[in-house]
């Protein structure tokens, strides 16, 4: 068999190249046909686009046309090579030289009229593709495959990203919008309306945001595609997620509104019971203050030289607010009743605590007198148990303390000193026999 011309491929190299290029041709054809049927591509073709998506899809559409033009050239070159190889079982030098030119050298000529790609597709194509269109261009088959793979990656990146965003966001926005409508109906039923309640204003804001967001997503899905940090625009397709930040914020806002409405509904369900409790607490506070005022008069009459704190009047402001709360309930103004009830419940408990503290402070002198009386009688009983009930000094000191404690007004300071003197005398008597004038041995 004659040797191939110098620099030409031999038969085995030709057969291996044809097999490889044939497999690549089949893979490229499969990919291009899949691209034609891709749901994202069909949606992009029929959508009214704007912004980033409009620019990138315009470039992608040109790339698709160029991909088919290059694929046709690739198919033609591969078909010519196969035809030459099929002429004879062992190709001669002329056939090998021709096959080498087709398979390894610049044997593919791109037809005139191939448009240049805008830079918005990948932002970095060779000057031959981004400059003015050429009449024709000669490429190696490997270069042609590499170029088609690169363009295909860019196109499928646009198509897949748009499809991912459209598959993820509009449906979720629609579901959230439906939930928003249900929430709005519930809000209106309990009086939560725009201009009257902050939650009503939030509902209006979220409604406007969802409407605008859905329109933007439909028109410009690529504006809502988030690439991983550091990923270049020309990298392989995939690797990215729909940007749901605005949707998530709207969903959180709606959840906050629902919680507020739940609170209002809770008020509507048990408003009467809570109002009764508040009224009862305020009534107890009022009765306690009345008791404190009566006790103050008693203390001033019965206790001498004692400073007695003044007692405030009834909680008029709270009673007025309670009347407002009752009116809100009667008119079913639950959104106004809710915060007022919470405030009333807290302040009513504070008022009752204040009234109790006032009563305790006012009656403190009476409590001191009662304690002194009890202590005096306890020591008298102790003395009697030990047989000293008739002790003259003890009797005198007991009588002196008793007169002070049971007189009105009572001098607490003097009475306390008298009780202490009786205690000391009792301790001396109980400690042992002492000879005292008029005392008992």
Topology:
Blueprint: H1 11-37, H2 39-46, H3 51-85, H4 93-103, E1 108-110, H5 127-130, E2 137-139, H6 141-189, H7 198-219, E3 225-226, E4 241-242, H8 245-302, E5 303-304, H9 316-330, H10 334-362, H11 364-385, H12 392-405, E6 410-411, H13 412-431
Parallel strand pairs: 5-6
Antiparallel strand pairs: 1-2, 3-4
Helix pairs in contact: 1-3, 1-4, 1-6, 2-6, 3-4, 3-6, 6-7, 6-8, 7-8, 8-9, 8-10, 9-10, 11-12, 11-13, 12-13
Describe the structure.
The chain folds into four domains: about 150 residues; about 100 residues, no CATH class; about 100 residues; about 70 residues. Helices cover about 70% and strands about 5% of the residues. It contains 13 helices and six strands. The strands form three sheets. The chain has a two-stranded antiparallel ribbon with strand order 1-2. The chain is elongated.
Supply the number of structural domains: 4
Largest sheet: 2 strands, antiparallel
Strand-residue fraction? under 5%
Shape: elongated
Radius of gyration: 50 Å
What's the quaternary structure here? single chain
Helix content: over 70%
Summed up, the helix count is 13
Spell out the key features of this protein.
disordered C terminus, two-stranded antiparallel sheet, 4 domains, two-stranded antiparallel ribbon, 441 residues, single chain, elongated, 6 strands, mainly alpha, 13 helices
Short note summarizing the structure:
The protein has 441 residues and is mostly helical. It contains 13 helices and 6 strands.
């Amino acid at each position: 068999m004659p040797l191939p011309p110098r620099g030409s491929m031999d038969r085995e190299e030709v057969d291996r190249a044809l097999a490889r290029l044939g497999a690549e041709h089949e893979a490229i054809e499969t990919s291009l046909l899949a691209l034609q049927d891709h749901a994202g591509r069909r949606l992009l073709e029929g959508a009214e686009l704007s912004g980033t998506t409009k620019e990138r899809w315009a470039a992608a559409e040109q790339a698709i046309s160029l991909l088919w033009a290059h694929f046709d050239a690739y198919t033609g070159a591969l078909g010519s090579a196969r035809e030459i190889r099929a002429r004879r079982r062992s190709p001669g030098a002329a056939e090998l030289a021709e096959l080498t030119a087709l398979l390894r050298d610049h044997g593919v000529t791109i037809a005139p009229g191939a448009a240049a790609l805008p830079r918005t597709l990948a932002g970095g194509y060779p000057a031959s593709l981004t400059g003015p269109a050429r009449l024709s261009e000669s490429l190696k088959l490997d270069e042609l495959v590499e170029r088609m793979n690169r363009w295909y990656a860019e196109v499928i990146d646009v198509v897949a990203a748009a499809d991912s965003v459209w598959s993820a966001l509009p449906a979720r926005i629609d579901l959230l919008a439906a939930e928003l409508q249900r929430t709005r109906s519930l809000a209106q039923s309990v009086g939560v309306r725009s201009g009257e309640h902050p939650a009503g204003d939030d509902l209006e804001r979220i409604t406007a945001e969802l409407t605008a967001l859905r329109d933007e997503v439909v028109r410009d899905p690529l504006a809502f595609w988030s690439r991983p940090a550091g990923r270049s625009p020309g990298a392989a397709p995939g690797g990215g997620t729909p940007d749901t930040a605005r949707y998530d914020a709207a969903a959180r806002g709606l959840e906050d509104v629902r919680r507020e409405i739940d609170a209002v509904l809770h008020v509507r369900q048990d408003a009467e019971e809570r109002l009764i409790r508040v009224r009862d607490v305020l009534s107890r506070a009022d009765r306690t203050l009345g008791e404190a005022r009566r006790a103050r008069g008693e203390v001033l009459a019965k206790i001498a030289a004692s400073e007695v704190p003044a007692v405030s009047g009834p909680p008029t402001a709270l009673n007025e607010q309670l009347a407002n709360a009752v009116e809100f309930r009667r008119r079913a103004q639950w959104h106004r009743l809710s915060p007022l009830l919470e405030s009333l419940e807290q302040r009513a408990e504070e008022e009752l605590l204040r009234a109790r503290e006032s009563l305790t402070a006012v009656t403190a002198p009476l409590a001191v007198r009662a304690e002194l009386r009890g202590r005096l009688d306890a020591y008298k009983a102790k003395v009697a148990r030990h047989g000293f009930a008739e002790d003259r000094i003890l009797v005198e000191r007991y009588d002196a303390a008793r007169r002070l404690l049971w007189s009105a007004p009572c001098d607490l300071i003097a009475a306390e000193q008298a009780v202490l003197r009786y205690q000391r005398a009792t301790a001396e008597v109980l400690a042992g026999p002492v000879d005292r004038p008029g005392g008992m041995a």
